[in-house]
């Protein structure tokens, strides 16, 4: 689980005298959940909650999907009322990154509210990606990923709002910036609170291993006089490093030495990652900027006009802050997905704009940071990880009809808002969400089943990923089901048809799979950019007239690869995942989920 461990940053802290840190962390988390539950469907008082909750979207399709889901949540009173909920879409054209999305959101706020937003407390959630590493979140968005928690079930949006429930009360007007696929848990003293009231930027920091620091932002903090760390500390930051090497962490004095923490200060499960005798660093999660800083960025954006390169809100904003910031990072493009001709120049302009702005750090020594953005992390945290399960109160069966699942010490299956026949079987380590499974369905270990309807006899191989989408094609309702291995790399691409042998589908050479499906290697096999060929753009998924036929057909192509038996796809209209998202019918997918919800509600009331 090394990849998963890199996605988890955990920190231990000095516990209250009466409670070990893991207990205080769990109790603090449960208190926040209870408080949010009290606000669901209620009109919040001024200053009690966020004035505005804004979610970013990559394109108009995503914007439509997000607005539809927000509308449904408000109708069902699953969110606090009296709050302005917005979806801000990136402009068409070049990808602009979450930093560019932040600038666009500031502009939209200015247009919508004028000078009024000077006094607003705003939560900005970045959810504009296509979730290629967790494709069951691709169609309806990462921020609407279902969790095995709550009644009605929580999605990531509700969990974010719950975990940040205390922030607005102690925040000056400004914007809190966060991402859609991570969870921050923390515990502080009973009479303490996190304040976002200093000029400039304020970021949360979590103790982490040096290895984890190489994939996140790392704070170089000014010296600290106290002999022993507390759960909550307000620190000033000399500079911020973005995904630094371990060598650079030492070079810039970002590394903290062991000796201050003692073993009883760590929350349960932390010692495996952050050992008491190991050096450690403080890594980032969310950050806040005051209104003055936001206005400065907005003026800059309106001056430059259109962005034509990707800006990182963390790498490009935070690295410019603090007295120790230098311009050298602007020329380092090793962590950039796509290097545009204007990137270095744009970074330098942002650096000179923000240079001299303070970076305040709120150190949370009894905190945990979970990233749930890949299939591996998703399966691990929902079926195997006892820490997150204990802290959030995650359940094996959440708002579903299914016989009790026997618990085991290692892992269990996870069923979320689904209806399963009592005679079907779901192996440990698998997640089923928004689906109906009949009596003769068996699901192997470590599978993800989403939005599917399987009535006929079916055996899903271990490590399968199956996700069904409703489509609107030529004004007709159709269905297509993506099916592959949970460990397949959908983002890996090659430039030429001769290199597609380097791609793998369910651990098998993709070229061999095409032979099994009787498909020819031509440019028409791939959608989109013909020099970026991947499983994401491969036209291999059949379009069908019914949801159940769609799942059955895609399972046949999956099993054909596993069993090395021919199954011709020549007679089907085929789409890539990229195209499925273009044709997706959001309303029908939400209607299907609503039908399952109503049936479960009815049967629950009858029991």
Automatic annotation (TrEMBL):
GO terms for molecular function: fucose-1-phosphate guanylyltransferase activity; nucleotide binding. Residues 1-24 are annotated as: Disordered. Pfam families: Fucose_pyrophosphorylase. Residues 114-545 form the GDP-fucose pyrophosphorylase domain. Gene3D superfamilies: Hexapeptide repeat proteins (2.160.10.10). Coiled coil: none annotated. InterPro entries: Fucose-1-phosphate_GuaTrfase (IPR012120), GDP_fucose_pyrophosphorylase (IPR012887), Trimer_LpxA-like_sf (IPR011004). One of its GO terms (biological process) is L-fucose metabolic process. Keywords: Nucleotide-binding, Transferase. SUPFAM superfamilies: Trimeric LpxA-like enzymes. PANTHER family: FUCOSE-1-PHOSPHATE GUANYLYLTRANSFERASE. This is Fucose-1-phosphate guanylyltransferase.
């Amino acid at each position: 689980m090394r990849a998963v461990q890199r996605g988890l940053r955990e920190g231990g802290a000095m516990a209250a005298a009466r409670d070990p840190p893991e207990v205080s962390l769990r109790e603090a988390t449960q208190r926040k959940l209870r408080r949010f539950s009290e606000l669901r469907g209620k009109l919040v008082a001024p200053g009690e909650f966020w004035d505005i909750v804004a979610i970013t979207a990559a394109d108009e399709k995503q914007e439509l999907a997000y607005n539809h889901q927000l509308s449904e949540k408000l109708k069902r009173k699953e969110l606090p009322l009296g709050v302005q909920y917005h979806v801000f879409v990136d402009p068409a054209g070049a990808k602009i990154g979450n930093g560019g999305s932040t600038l666009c959101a500031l502009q939209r706020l200015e247009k919508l509210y004028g000078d009024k937003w000077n006094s607003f407390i705003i939560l900005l959630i970045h959810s504009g990606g296509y979730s290629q590493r967790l494709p069951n979140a691709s169609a309806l968005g990462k921020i609407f990923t279902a969790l095995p928690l709550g009644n009605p079930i929580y999605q990531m949006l509700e969990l974010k709002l719950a975990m940040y429930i205390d922030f607005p009360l102690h925040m000056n007007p400004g914007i809190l910036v966060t991402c859609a696929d991570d969870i921050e848990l923390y515990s502080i003293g009973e009479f303490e609170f996190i304040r976002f009231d200093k000029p400039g930027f304020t970021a949360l920091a979590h103790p982490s291993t040096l290895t984890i620091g190489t994939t996140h932002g790392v704070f170089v903090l000014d010296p600290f006089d106290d002999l022993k760390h507390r759960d909550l500390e307000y620190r000033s930051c000399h500079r911020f490093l973005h995904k630094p090497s371990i060598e650079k962490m030492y070079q810039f004095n970002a590394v903290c030495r062991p000796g201050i923490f003692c073993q009883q200060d760590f929350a349960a499960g932390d010692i495996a990652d952050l050992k008491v005798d190991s050096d450690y660093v403080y890594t980032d999660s969310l950050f806040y900027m005051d209104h003055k800083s936001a206005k400065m960025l907005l003026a800059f954006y309106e001056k430059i006009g259109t962005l034509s390169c990707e800006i990182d809100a963390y790498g490009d904003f935070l690295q410019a802050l603090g007295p120790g910031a230098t311009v050298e990072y602007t020329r380092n493009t090793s962590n950039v997905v796509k290097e545009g001709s204007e990137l270095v120049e744009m970074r330098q302009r942002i650096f000179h704009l923000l240079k001299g702005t303070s970076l305040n750090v709120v150190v949370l020594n009894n905190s945990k940071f979970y990233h749930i953005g890949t299939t591996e992390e998703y399966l691990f945290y929902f079926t195997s990880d006892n820490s997150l399960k204990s802290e959030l109160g995650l359940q094996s069966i959440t708002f579903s009809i299914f016989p009790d699942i026997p618990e085991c010490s290692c892992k269990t299956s996870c069923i979320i808002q689904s209806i399963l026949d009592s005679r079907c079987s779901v192996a440990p380590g698998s997640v089923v969400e928004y689906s109906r499974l009949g009596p003769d369905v068996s699901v192997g270990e470590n599978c993800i089943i989403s939005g599917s309807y399987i009535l006929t006899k079916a055996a899903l191989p271990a490590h399968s990923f199956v996700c069904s989408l409703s489509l609107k094609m030529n004004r007709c309702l159709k269905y297509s089901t993506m099916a592959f291995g949970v460990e397949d790399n959908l983002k890996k691409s090659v430039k030429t048809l001769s290199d597609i042998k380097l791609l793998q589908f369910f651990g098998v050479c993709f070229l061999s799979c095409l032979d099994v499906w009787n498909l020819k290697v031509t440019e028409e096999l791939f959608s989109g950019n013909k020099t970026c060929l991947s499983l994401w753009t491969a036209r291999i998924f059949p379009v069908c007239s019914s949801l159940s036929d769609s799942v059955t057909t895609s399972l046949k192509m999956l099993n054909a690869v596993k069993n090395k038996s021919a199954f011709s796809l020549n007679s089907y209209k085929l789409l890539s995942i990229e195209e499925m998202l273009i044709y997706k019918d959001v309303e029908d997918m939400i209607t299907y989920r609503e039908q399952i919800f109503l049936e479960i509600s009815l049967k629950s009331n009858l029991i």
